[in-house]
What we know:
Layout: E1 15-20, E2 33-39, E3 49-54, E4 58-63, E5 68-72, E6 81-87, H1 93-101, E7 116-121, E8 126-130, E9 135-138, E10 143-145, E11 153-158, E12 164-169, E13 174-178, E14 184-186, E15 194-199, E16 203-208, E17 212-217, E18 232-238, E19 250-255, E20 259-264, E21 268-273, E22 293-297, E23 302-307, E24 311-316, E25 321-326, E26 339-346, E27 352-357, E28 361-366
Antiparallel strand pairs: 1-2, 1-28, 3-4, 4-5, 5-6, 7-8, 8-9, 9-10, 11-12, 12-13, 13-14, 15-16, 16-17, 17-18, 19-20, 20-21, 21-22, 23-24, 24-25, 25-26, 27-28
Amino acid sequence: MADIPLPSNFYSHNLFGIGCNDQGQIGPKSKILCRELTPIDENRFQNNIKSVACCRDALLILTADQNLYFRGKLKASDHIEYKFKAIPWRNDPMFHQDAIQGLTNSTTGLSEEPEIVSIHCSTSDFYLLTKSRSLFRYNGKDFIKVDPFHLNVKIICTYLESADAFVITTDDEVYFSNAQAPFAFVNFKPSSKIVGMSCGLIHELVHCEDNLYVRGDNNCCQLGLDNEDVKVINDFTSFKTDYPFSCSNIKMVRCGNYHTILATKDSRIFTCGKGICGELGNGEVHVEKHVWLEVLTLKQRVVDIFAGCHTSYVIAEDKTIYRCGRNYEKALLINDVDNQTVFIPIKFTRKLKQIVTGSLACILEFQHFVTLLPKVNLLLQRDTSPFSDIEIKTSTDRYLDE
């Protein structure tokens, strides 16, 4: 097993992608598959990226100066964008109306300019959350304001393989939308404040301060429950069961297609569900079902976790990436294996700002490099010093208040 070699232009670009490129989401039109780290930034992004989001077929970028760009394809469009295309959101009157109704400057008393604070992707829509906590949906053609949540959105939850989307308000009310259907209220009253949520292909988990609620398909035990007892749960339900972790100690949860990954506040990693490609990280493939099991314990603080279709990623405080699962076209940044069955670490010689995982691809953003290092340093390092002088910036889209 060997880590991928770095390209010769590794130090002259900030944003790279690797993996599937069938819709132009991470590479040029001539490449259906990108088997090496491929630069996908442009001059306009140089050290200017605020946030990156992706789904199965599209990549969305928000810059620090509040410009939006996307490439790839959304379901509502038959056209594929092989280069980044600007989304002219500033020209849309709905955003200016939102600013008028939203925040005012404390000094001047005038309405502030609209500002996007986070971006999110489903397979059919982009979602934009503004500073005034209003939510907008963009389907590739038109902007639509999601009316029920004006000034009130706390958490947005989407999945990269699905058109489903969830919204949690500051009052801990939950709303759900599928494809172009309007958001509808979900009858669910949590026992305590909602901290985070994750939705997979056919299952969802809501993490509260002292409880864990689950809903959806459990045929592969992806809800963490023995499927001999529970097959499908139609409403968010809390089970008084003996989890191998305390619910009050949960830091974050992520759902994949048929598996789930969970991190605790003391940096323990648990997985459950179906592990046909090693995505459970327990050393096995072709696992049809498994309840929660501990697969990794880190000395470093965990800052983020990701669950792709058949992949799992853990990001440590020192920017080490631990990954396992299906290595489709080297999307796990591994050179010579198809399925990685245990979490293995990788650390780059450049300072990593954020990582975003797609269905079959991986996108990484690095700190801007002013001076190029000698070519001898173009190697992946597993035991370099921690990047303690960098502000941690992750791309999580389900724990906005962390």
